[in-house]
Design a protein that fits this description.
Layout (H helix, E strand, L loop, with lengths): L3 E3 L8 E4 L2 E11 L7 E8 L5 E7 L3 E4 L2 E11 L3 E6 L5 E5 L15 E7 L2 E6 L3 E9 L13 E5 L4 E4 L8 E5 L4 E5 L2
Antiparallel strand pairs: 1-6, 2-3, 2-6, 3-4, 4-5, 7-8, 7-10, 8-9, 10-11, 12-13, 12-15, 13-14, 15-16
């Protein structure tokens, strides 16, 4: 039996079911118009397709919580079609389809601990740490005077991702990257 909650109890990062699909609440807003009934507008990400939608509910509605489980796991390897993670609790191998984590792959590094999302027992996605430290393997050299006006240049990281970095970052540097936005934060070493 699925758990239902009052729409006014919804919170960010909750997993809900809408039209038979699992969604993660990204943001919500309680709206009380001057005229008419109050409502709740939810911005949610479909955990199977990655699409973000807005859903509007009346304040008297109830919503169904999705049958979700979160497992901490360590990334091990991939075979092209699946990425394999080792559960830190049971030490079982969890295969996650590559198409479900296309965005996350850019910052995924061997040995990294992530959260694997299981929907009705099936792995459908992962969540990376908010920040990761990665090595710059390719970038243009800095030239004297480049830093006077600020600016940035592209840098290829060890995972294959390309991010914009300040001119003073060189090949071999370790940088901290925000995995949610895919942007440079700071140079670590």
């Amino acid at each position: 039996m699925a758990v239902k909650i009052d729409i006014n109890s919804v919170q960010r990062d909750m997993f809900i079911e809408h039209a038979g699909q699992p969604y993660r609440v990204l943001d919500y807003e309680h709206v009380k118009p001057g005229k008419g009934q109050a409502f709740v507008r939810i911005k949610a990400k479909n955990m199977q397709t990655g699409n973000v939608i807005e859903i509007t509910y009346k304040s008297s509605d109830t919503i169904e919580l999705a049958d979700f489980e979160q497992v901490f796991a360590e990334y091990s390897y991939n075979d092209g079609s699946n990425y394999y993670f080792i559960s830190q609790q049971t030490y079982e191998m969890i295969p996650v389809p590559a198409e479900n984590i296309a965005e996350e792959i850019k910052f995924l590094k061997e040995g990294m601990t992530v959260v694997v999302f299981l929907y009705k027992g099936q792995p459908i996605g992962i969540e990376l740490p908010k920040h990761v430290e990665l090595k710059v393997i390719e970038t243009d050299p800095a030239f004297k005077g480049d830093t006077a006006a600020g600016g940035s240049k592209p840098a290829k990281l060890e995972t294959g991702a390309v991010v914009q970095v300040p001119f003073f970052v060189n090949e071999g540097d370790i940088i901290k990257v925000d995995t949610r936005k895919g942007i440079y934060i700071e140079r670590v070493k």
